[in-house]
Amino acid sequence: MDQHVENFIRDFLKEIREGSAAVFAGAGLSTAAGFVNWQELVRPLADELGLDVEKESDLVALAQYHYNENGQQRHKINQLIIDKLTVGAGPTANHRILARLPINTYWTTNYDQLVETALRDAGKIPDVKHVVPQLATTRARRDAVIYKMHGDVDHPHEAVLIKDDYERYHRDRGAFINALTGDLVSKTFLFLGFSFTDPNLDYILSRVRVAFQENQRRHFCIFRRREKYDGESDADFSHAATRQRLAIEDLKRFNIKTLLVDDYAQVTEILQRIERQYRQRTIFVSGSADSFTPWTKQAVDEFVRDLSRALVKKGLRLVTGVGAGIGDAVISGALEQVHHVKDLHIDDALLMRPFPRLIADPSERSRVWDAYRQEMISSAGIALFLLGNKLVDGALVHSDGVAREFDIALERGLAVVPVGGTGYMARALWERVNASLDHYYPGASADFRDKFIRLGDSADEPSHLISRVLDIVTLIEQE
After folding, report:
1. Are 10 and 92 in contact (CB under 8 A)?
2. Which is more confidently placed, 44 or 397?
3. CA dihedral in degrees (271, 277, 281, 285; nearest 10)?
4. Got the DSSP string for 364-407?
5. Residue-level pLDDT at 198
């Protein structure tokens, strides 16, 4: 990744964390799922008119011609939308990554339902707006709003598709223009799969530009760098490359910064890095204890509380299932830091998911607890393991729950940090990772290896382990 991409990841990640990020999804985001692009959508219309769609640059006009030639009836157009945009694969990896991120505003000119499907699959509640009256209503407990400014596949008769629809847009759908104008002013957009040829968006961007002049908010888009096609002449390729360069330069008028990639797979890589770095600011704390030997319970409580406070002070959020013997200290440390820093919200520092313990049926309890673990761990990027023991029929054993959380963390791609110096299951997990460090941390530096070994060293007082944990977490953050 070049420096421009690194800068984008840093800047857009900041907007995500501050709740100011938005996504504008164009047709290119859906074609990877198996749906047709605009050209393929209207190809049957062109064939019926006796036109070569490859030679047509104004596809909206082509759709209008078909409408005119068929007695101003759009049944064929409506049927194409239904046939071409309801059959295909589900959401792509890009849709799913975006859905997992805390982005609450989506705009799209697409008719398909990939964005809302991805959000629902991620356990979120989308509030979909595809007609003006819906803008005045709010779905309860919504996690994200999807503005489908050109309509929805389930209502093809209302879709914006022909020239008449565009010409009447300001009259029929003007509220969408106002809503998008407001979001372009208050949020930072990432345009994906968008060509910037839509006349509605061009008009809206122009309004924002005139109103704010040199104070426009910065936005981003990603284009694939134009490459020479097989059989393409040098002159045609030169023309296309020049046109792309000029289009990118023109977008600067609207303060839209363009990132060029050589392959669309790089878009997924970029989004994966954004998600990974976002999740690395959240640490899942796993642990339980009925025994605190060789220390006292008070010493362990102080250690866990001070460690939790130090992690929150670093700007990290802690996730806890309030494990026996550990959870209360995690909560206390995080809340102490929240109250110490006046502009820090509890939700930014702590996520609690106490296990429901009053479930009589063992199999049902195991199922529910596993679901809890999956949910908690999937929200984090780092998993920290402390102690891990419990009493079973009066005998002290290693905690199988902590071991299960370790396995889930690996499945979810988290960086695992077992603090072997605390003993018990955490020690066993540390030995497992340390024996195959290249597997768990490929390409780890010598400094990382040294600091990871120190996690397994014993300590006279558990508080001595705090600096060792902070050192490892810092190195993981710098990955």
Report:
1. no
2. 397
3. 90
4. HHHHHHHHHHHHHHHT-SEEEEEE-EEEETTEEEE-HHHHHHHH
5. 65
Q: What is the pLDDT of residue 151?
A: 93
Cα angle, residue 114 at apex, residues 109 and 117 outer, rounded to 5°:
135
For 18, the token pair is: 């501050």
Q: Which residues contact 362 (CB under 8 A, 6 or more apart)?
A: none
Residue 452 has which token pair? Answer: 């990871």
Q: Considering only CA atoms, which of 372, 298, 360, 294 is closest in space to residue 328?
A: 298
Q: Do 110 and 135 form a contact (C-beta atoms < 8 A)?
A: no
User: CA 265, CA 213: separation in Å to the nearest integer?
Assistant: 35
Q: Which amino acid is at 409?
A: A
Position with higher pLDDT, 144 vs 356: 144
Q: Report CA torsion sign: 11, 267, 205, 257.
A: positive
pTM score: 0.87
Q: Which of 450, 458, 453, 455 is nearest to 467 (CA)?
A: 455
The most confident of 140-149, 350-359, 470-479, by mean pLDDT: 140-149
- Alpha carbons 288 and 388: distance in angstroms, whole number: 5
Model confidence pLDDT, tens digit, residues 354-406: 888 888 888 998 898 998 899 899 989 999 999 999 999 999 999 999 999 99
CA 311 to chain centre: 23
∠ Cα 352 357 363 (to 5°)? 115
Take residue 332 and report the two structure tokens written for it. 């206390």
| Token pair 């558990």 in the structure block, residue | 462
Instruction: Indicate the helix (H) or strand (E) that contains 466.
Output: helix 466-477
Kindly state the tokens that stand for 80: 């194409």
Contacts of 451-457 with C-beta under 8 Å, sequence gap 24+, read 451/475, 455/417, 455/418, 455/419, 455/420, 455/421, 455/430, 456/420, 456/421, 456/427, 456/430, 456/431, 457/420, 457/421
The separation between CA 276 and the C-alpha centre of its own chain, rounded to angstroms, equals: 9
Taken in order 472, 334, 101, 120, the sign of the CA dihedral is: positive
Q: How far, in Å, CA of 13 to CA of 387, rounded?
A: 33
- Quickly list DSSP for 106-173: EEES--S-HHHHHHHHTT--EEEE-SGGGGG---TT-SEEEEETT--TT-GGG---SHHHHHTHHHHS
Residues acting as catalytic residues: 150
Q: For residues 166 and 221, is the Cβ–Cβ distance under 8 A?
A: no
Phi and psi at residue 57, to the nearest 5°? -100, -25
